[in-house]
Design a protein that fits this description.
The structure is a homodimer of 317-residue chains.
Chain A (H helix, E strand, L loop, with lengths): L12 E4 L1 H5 L9 H13 L4 E6 L12 H7 L7 E5 L3 H9 L4 E7 L2 H8 L3 H6 L1 H10 L3 E7 L12 H13 L4 E6 L6 H14 L4 E6 L6 H11 L3 E4 L19 H10 L8 H15 L7 H4 L2 H14 L1
Parallel strand pairs in A: 1-2, 1-8, 2-3, 3-4, 4-5, 5-6, 6-7
């Protein structure tokens, strides 16, 4: 008889993408000072991989227009990876211009999505990555890649695994071996994460995988659990769970960094992140953007807080 | 090498506890008519197990004071189990008085919790269940049992597995074989659910288990995934995710029925529940209580909705 068997890693790596994927959907455009304050707190929390912004066209995403200034003015702490999203060579040059040494390229794995938005197939779009990779090599910039719509697409629904494999192979041919499987539409479910995820991990053992989840439909925390079983150990998160669609009040965005860290710690897995500090970042982010986001731990508190509160209460009785 | 292996049941049973555990924490006390409207919609959604209220002291929980009237006036649909929570013989007699045939007894597994609140140990409290079981047998009432604080307690933190086993054995000695492991404080984590859950399921194969989860700290959906791996196939949920603490604005309560049903369906598992109807119940519940609760699917929509919306949009282009 087939029996379930769950296993847990000793260690998980958390990447903070709030400054990019969290803030890019906010109506309010933050000042550079506000971004730097958030960035400092993220670093203090012990997170070692931080996506600080993107070099897309400022008219398309005005929230990210000041990424160069953020990069110029930020403290650079040794051992912390400051990453930016770049769509093309132009963006990569801007990243290099401010001395950044890690970038992320991105392509939607969905044919319809790519053709509809850019009039190109994913593989055609990726031809534009060749000069990026060459430029990056010349300037010692590390390049990672994202597969967006990897778990589902509004145009196509589920994406065939062969299509995912095709894009992964194309990235590998470019020499890019750190790949993020992104679920910006929140369509991934835990069974799919486990089944497709284990398949991808086994098929491409040379890849360092990142799982990028959104909680749009409430499945992100279940996906983390299934992702751990598939073998993922690196997860993106955004402080406070920012990144929801500004046109759907209350809609969830990125999985909240502090919710992930809390759950992972509760399971006895090490992250190296100071949870209280991560919660402080999230509270600060909510204050700066001017509204609550979908963090659950920020409202309900840690398990530990509940026990402590009761202990305090008993003592006073 | 140990490898993870996830397996999935073909079928999951959903119990709706919103009318009891959802509403008992609301400031607003609903009218009997409002409760009956909600109850009708729950039945229409295809849910077959419904906790309609409790027979506790009306001064302690005024929100449940009208449970007798609800029971008297509700339509009784064949094949639907209408359950009430009863704390003692008095409650059971009231349930019998209105012709109910299914009750749930409950005890906290935490020694400190019991002693602090009732000045009795859990086993001492359970002595009070003996006349209940005898009365129920005489009147053909089915009795189930709940183990509250099963996954953690504000006084004690984690509960030793031996303590859980002791309470399960006491229930079994009373002839009660349907048992709910309740996490009203939202302290359970997925690893614990899997490890303790599989142990309990293997140790007591005669028990029909129910998993009752709250999303207070964001772990409930991950706990469902781990619960399925442990072998649980029956889960409580509350429409809209009601049941948060009224004193913590925005704090999550019970896991939202519609979030669970949506995720379970996305994983290709059958529930027999009409998701759109369950979402209708949840929207109605939010309207009646007068505030949004923590349902995620209600805000973000189903996966299917996203794909349909895009298809419509493409057609109009």
């Amino acid at each position: 008889m087939t029996r379930a068997n769950m296993i847990w890693p000793n260690k998980v790596k958390i990447c903070e993408v709030g400054l990019r994927d969290g803030l890019q959907n906010e109506k309010k455009i933050l000042t550079v000072e506000e971004k730097l304050t958030l960035l400092d707190t993220v670093v203090e929390s012990g997170i070692k991989v931080i996506e600080i912004g993107s070099f897309v066209h400022p008219k398309a995403v005005p929230q990210m227009a000041d990424t160069e200034e953020v990069a110029r003015r930020m403290k650079r702490v040794a051992g912390v990876e400051y990453r930016v999203l770049v769509p093309n060579l132009k963006g990569l040059e801007r990243a290099h211009g401010v001395g950044l040494t890690k970038v992320k390229l991105t392509v939607s794995v969905s044919e319809s999505h790519c053709i509809n938005n850019f009039n190109q197939t994913p593989l055609e779009m990726m031809k534009g990555f060749i000069p990026c990779v060459e430029y990056a090599a010349r300037h010692s910039i590390e390049v990672s890649g994202a597969l967006s719509s990897a778990w589902g697409c509004a145009f196509e629904g589920k994406i065939p695994t062969q299509q995912l494999e095709k894009i992964v192979k194309a990235y590998l041919e470019l020499g890019i071996t750190e790949l993020s499987l992104s679920d910006a539409t929140g369509m991934a479910n835990p069974r799919q994460i486990y089944e497709v995820g284990s398949h991808m991990i086994q098929t491409f053992p040379q890849v360092r995988w990142v799982l990028h989840l959104h909680n749009t439909r409430g499945m992100a925390m279940g996906n983390i659990v299934a992702g751990l079983q598939a073998g993922f150990t690196t997860f993106d998160g955004a402080f406070a769970g920012l990144g929801g669609c500004p046109y759907i009040p209350g809609a969830s965005g990125n999985i909240a960094t502090e919710d992930v860290v809390h759950m992972i710690h509760e399971m006895g897995i090490y992250t190296g992140v100071d949870l209280l500090k991560a919660m402080e970042t999230a509270r600060m982010a909510e204050k700066i953007v001017g509204h609550q986001a979908q963090s659950v731990v920020l409202r309900g508190g840690r398990c530990e807080d509940l026990t402590k509160e009761k202990a305090r209460y008993q003592k006073n009785e």
